Amino acid sequence: MRSCALEVKHLESWYGESHILHGVDFSVNDGEVVTLLGRNGAGRTTILKTILGLTSKRVGSVRVYGEEAIAMPTYKIARLGVGYCPEERGIFASLSAEENLLLLPEVSVGGMGLDEIYEMFPNLYERRNSPGTRLSGGEQQMLAMARILRTGAKLLLLDEITEGLAPVIVEKLGEVVSSLRNKGFTIVLVEQNFRFAAPLADRHYVVEHGRVVEVVAKSELANKAGLLNEYLGV
Question: Could you give the CA distance from residue 68 to residue 59 in angstroms, rounded to a whole number?
Fold first, then answer.
């Protein structure tokens, strides 16, 4: 039986006076890949930010590897082994690709070395001396993902990693997610691209109006395709 890497219960969250999440429940076992699916504005990105304590207020329960994190500051949650790849990527434009990789502190033992990173992302090795501003969108996305692998984080929260990228880059990122899963990482994907997410995930949580309204296992995808179409408009 796999242990639980992330367990979210009755999670509510606010930005200022705006009540965004209304009792979110989901869990991810160690070594699993799950997705948070839904339309724009459903609350998927807010779920990731709330897990990390990046909203103005949150209540409920967030257990990371068995530790209750709902009252922890963000830096302590990161030290539990959580890595976050935000949609905006957060690349330091004035630093080279390699300097960006070397910048983050180690939050846990077992972070990937540069050689391992470059083996997984050959493009970054070729562009290692290029400043962040000179990298393509796909290269920036690879760098944002590679950077959190250096920290030793084992639970990865990845927000819209395929958005706006060419199909060849999307395919490469799919290979990377599969490789990370095989290495024992646990991954939560917020994703609009269902064709990308479908073959990668053990389970899909459909989010609507700040709640999880449907859970679809990989084995149920064919039978629940119509239901997913209704929720996602795909």
Answer: 12
